[in-house]
Design goal:
Helix 6 packs across helix 8 and helix 7 packs across helix 9. By secondary structure, the protein is of the alpha/beta class. 57% of the residues lie in helices and 16% in strands. The protein contains 9 helices and 4 strands, in the order ββαβαβααααααα. It has a 4-stranded mixed β-sheet.
Length: 219
């Protein structure tokens, strides 16, 4: 993940690219706190370059928004890519990060098409702390909607290819993810792509073979 900041009058523009997840949330949180502290009126976020964002990242944005409101400032998302847009739509949080206009680009398009599918859990203004905590819980419950399909596909591939049980296939995925320092959803995507002929990286293939052998020997 890369973060850049620049002054824009009474506001600070923070541009984020890469992936926002449990591994990078603290870095983003520190950057947003610092940007809010230095800006008289608040922060404008450009998330167009974010290729992945799970509930960890959204929780960071919600906490930063709360800090901004407590200091009579605002945290606004001015641009967002497809993944962030989908996350906002699924969790009905787009309105929390807009002020005077919609989120630009794909995020707003997605939200406009799908916002009716998700019940409105809080009003844009006057959000209580209890209501926002409830929203965070909803975010966590819906996290699987973003990453589970491809992970389930990858697990099915392992079950079919090596005759593994569901539990063993899951153990193999987790083991390979940890030993190759690869995020679970990325590993799952690589496994699914390998079915269409895209070879796995050598180090992933080696760890996969070792992990499959490990669970097979323990059976």
């Amino acid at each position: 993940m890369e973060i850049t900041t620049r002054s824009a009058g009474t506001r600070t523009v923070v541009t984020v690219s890469g992936e926002i997840d449990i591994d990078t949330e603290q870095t983003l949180q520190r950057a947003l706190r610092l940007a809010l502290a230095r800006s008289p009126e608040g922060v404008d976020l450009d998330l167009a370059g974010v290729g992945f964002c799970d509930c960890s990242g959204l929780n960071v944005l919600l906490r930063a928004r709360r800090i901004a409101l407590a200091d009579c400032k605002t945290l606004r998302v001015r641009a967002a890519g497809p993944w962030v847009g989908r996350l906002f739509a699924l969790t009905d949080t787009s309105s929390l990060f807009t002020s005077g206009g919609p989120v630009d680009g794909v995020a707003h398009d997605w939200y406009e098409r799908h916002s009716a599918e998700t019940p409105n859990l809080m009003e844009e203004n006057g959000v209580s702390e209890e209501a926002e905590e409830l929203r965070v819980e909803v975010v966590q419950l819906k996290r699987a909607m973003l990453t589970r399909p491809v992970i389930d596909l990858a697990r099915g591939i392992l079950m079919a290819s090596f005759g593994l049980s569901r539990e063993d296939a899951w153990s193999v995925l987790v083991d390979v993810s940890q030993h190759t320092n690869t995020k679970l959803h990325q590993l799952a995507e690589e496994l699914v792509a390998s079915v269409d002929g895209t070879p796995l990286p050598d180090h992933v293939q080696q760890q996969l073979s070792a992990a499959v052998a490990g669970v097979s020997n323990s059976a």
